[in-house]
Amino acid sequence: MLASHVRSTIPLFICCLATFTSALALADNTLFTAMDDPATAQKPFEGNFQAGYNAQSGNSQNSRLLASTNMTWFDNDAAYSLWGAANNATSSNVRSSEKYQAGGRNRYNLNDRNYLFGQASWLSDRFNGYDSRSILTGGYGHQILNGPVSDLRVEFGPGVRHDEYHGGGRSTKALAYGAANYSYQLTDSTKITQGISALTNEAITLNSETALNVAINEKLSLRVAYTITYNRKPPVSAPKSTDTTTSVTLVYGL
């Protein structure tokens, strides 16, 4: 029965992957995180927009702007998501950080615990050595916990990565992808989330994001996040292996 169900979903899965491939220029987050289970979705669409800005003037002049959006559509057994993000910073009127991301992914439930996924992403982060980085991956996911308080998902699969380096040169290589996402509803208005992912070949990339989300009202919430990205073999133009980002943003539910 399960084998028959898997065979029937393979054409849909391949079709979704092909769609993401053709839309790669439009479409880990540096951190890929597993999507919510469509079987437990409360409404057919969920979306948000979040933004943060800070500025300092006087003896030093610094500013930073963060903005991102995430939109997800749910069906009975499937979910489809698109996202985008921008992060810019200046110091003494000189640009010190500039990062843009876009991506899309899908999830198709095989049953209440197992699912297939496909995802594609594009990243431009020249201050960390990448004029462009495109990733396509897909595979199998498992819903370990799916309760009102705790949610835990893991997934893994093969993929391909194309890098164009800011210092010159490019490469296209196969990779193995794995990720886990955990959330805990601390109170009615407070949720803690932890996401980790790994993109592995001879150049391993590890990502971790820890976030606290506090609802202000039905539409607005406050989000505090700490992200770590580790590259075992970083680009020559950005030789440091580890980057960290702390962000405080207001999130508006669409």
Task: Walk me through what this model shows.
The protein is mainly beta and 254 residues long. The chain has a domain at 102-253: monomeric porin ompg (Porin, Beta Barrel), CATH 2.40.160. The protein is built from 1 helix and 12 strands. The chain has a 12-stranded antiparallel beta barrel with strand order 1-2-3-4-5-6-7-8-9-10-11-12. A hairpin with a 4-residue loop joins strand 8 and strand 9 (190-200). Residues 1-30 have low confidence and may be disordered.
- What overall geometry do the principal axes of the alpha carbons give? globular
The tally of beta strands, per DSSP, is: 12
The biggest beta sheet reads:
12 strands, antiparallel, barrel
Question: What letter string, H or E per element, gives the SSE order?
Answer: HEEEEEEEEEEEE
Strand order of the largest sheet: 1-2-3-4-5-6-7-8-9-10-11-12
Class inferred from helices and paired strands: mainly beta
Distance between the termini: 39 Å
Q: What portion of residues belong to β-strands? A: over 45%
What is the share of helical residues?
A: under 10%
Please identify which CATH superfamily of the domain at 102-253 we are dealing with: monomeric porin ompg
What is the annotated CATH architecture of the domain at 102-253? Beta Barrel
List the total number of helices: 1
List the helices and strands and how they pair.
Elements: H1 2-22, E1 45-56, E2 62-74, E3 78-91, E4 94-109, E5 114-125, E6 130-146, E7 150-165, E8 170-185, E9 190-200, E10 205-215, E11 220-231, E12 242-253
Antiparallel strand pairs: 1-2, 1-12, 2-3, 3-4, 4-5, 5-6, 6-7, 7-8, 8-9, 9-10, 10-11, 11-12
InterPro entries: DUF481
Protein name: DUF481 domain-containing protein
